[in-house]
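Notes to self after the Tuesday call (sharing in case useful).
The group wants a holo model before anyone commits to mutagenesis around the pocket. I volunteered. Ligand is nicotinamide-adenine-dinucleotide. Logging inputs and output together so the record is complete.
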Amino acid sequence: MTQVPNVRLNNGVQIPQIGFGVFQIEQRMTADAVRAAFDAGYRHVDTAQMYGNEEGVGAAIVGSGLPRDEIFVTTKLNNDRHGRDEAAIALDESLERLGLDHVDLYLIHWPIPAQDRYVETWKGFEKVVADGRARAIGVSNFTVAHLERLAAETGTVPAVNQIELHPAFPQPELRAYHDEHGIATQAWSPIGQGGELLRDERLVRIAEKHGRSPAQIVLRWHVQLGNIVFPKSVRPERMRENIDVFAIVLTDDDLATLAELNTGRRLGPDPDHFG
Ligand code: NAD
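Result:
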């Protein structure tokens, strides 16, 4: 079974670099999917209040018999629960659904600039990490401007920023900002949702050269950049494929070719306008 290395977050907490994402997995299928992911060697699960499947994640954890401290669980605050007290109450509700007394990472899912409450929300997050209901706190879909505002108005640097990131949308400026400020980069839709990206001829050629799949090459690209990823699949053979990337070594030429895949186009919403 593949051993996944950890990344050390800015408060010392360790997170497995590859996890399992459960967006768009129905509640009734989630426990089986997460159990299969544990069997494949995953020990990090990325869910969210919005995904409506925290109970399934919790059932898989309880059913696995794995020690709690061997599993890393992330959940995310729903967009309609912003606010200092509300963020903590929403986490308690997540913990109830998950059947856990703490999560490993709690994220603000989207900044929702139109609500203008993410600074206040972050103060609630500082409270939940102080009282142990989350081992680390972070954000998702924040731009440099949102991160700078948190830095100016609060005392805690997010442990991570979880953003759309894949070779077709590599976000170099935001990644550089993260590196400069000790924020780990988490890449969502890491394999471009399994779409067009994986069929790009240039990528397919690199995959053939290494005797690997296009998805594995893209996931290895993330790992070499230092990104934390959690590809989603409900198929056990793909779960195993997506975690088995640590023996691949991409050359400078491969990386230069992958840099050509940047289209500058997002698959998902623009955080400045979403919500
Ligand atoms: P992804 O890039 O992980 O793609 C998943 C899809 O790719 C699958 O549904 C499947 O169709 C296909 N696939 C999986 N493995 C494959 C393989 N080996 N070969 C070919 N196709 C394969 O996209 P995603 O699910 O959007 O993102 C992953 C995770 O990121 C989510 O489950 C969620 O946890 C997180 N996420 C977070 C946000 C956010 O706003 N923070 C947004 C979207 C996703």
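Two things stood out.
The longest strand covers residues 134-140.
The radius of gyration is 18 Å.
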